[in-house]
Write a structure and sequence with these properties.
By secondary structure, the chain is mainly β. It has strands spanning about 5, 10, 20-25, 35-40, 45-50, 60, 70-75, 80-85, 90-100, 110-115, 115-120. The protein contains no helices and 11 strands. Strands 2, 4, 5, 6, 9, 10 and 11 form a 7-stranded mixed sheet that branches. Strands 1-3-8-7 form a 4-stranded antiparallel sheet, with no helix packed on it. The mean pLDDT is about 95.
Length: about 120
């Protein structure tokens, strides 16, 4: 059974950091492009970052450039999202998703999804 599981969310103060993990089971994550998305209450799901299957190519939404870093360890079947300088507007449920093609910020283009992890940035 193909499964993605996110972890690492939580409550953090503005300016703080979190590292999210996306672990795969039932398939080889290294064959897939992985995207991170987030969805805040009342808002549409939006693309945050994406990394190619090899890790050689990464993309970020403009608001995340310089603050977030995506990486992957295919040996551990895991993708990470390091989030620094967090802001209250980063509060959302964060999801990872997989697709066997190039990076895209379009959520419906992804085939497999995790259940999400809550990130709350508040003082």
């Amino acid at each position: 059974q193909l499964q993605l599981v996110e972890s690492g969310g939580g409550l953090v103060q503005p300016g703080g950091s979190l590292r999210l993990s996306c672990a795969a089971s039932g398939f080889t994550l290294g064959a897939y492009t992985i995207g991170w998305f987030r969805q805040a209450p009342g808002k549409e799901r939006e693309g945050v970052s994406c990394i190619s299957s090899s890790g050689s190519s990464t993309n970020y939404a403009d608001s995340e450039k310089g603050r977030f870093t995506i990486s992957r360890d295919n040996a551990k079947n895991t993708v990470y999202l390091q989030m620094n300088s967090l802001k209250p507007e980063d509060t959302a449920v964060y999801y990872c998703a997989a697709r066997p093609r190039l990076c895209t910020p379009i959520a419906v283009a992804y085939d497999y999804w995790g259940q999400g992890t809550q990130v709350t940035v508040s003082s």
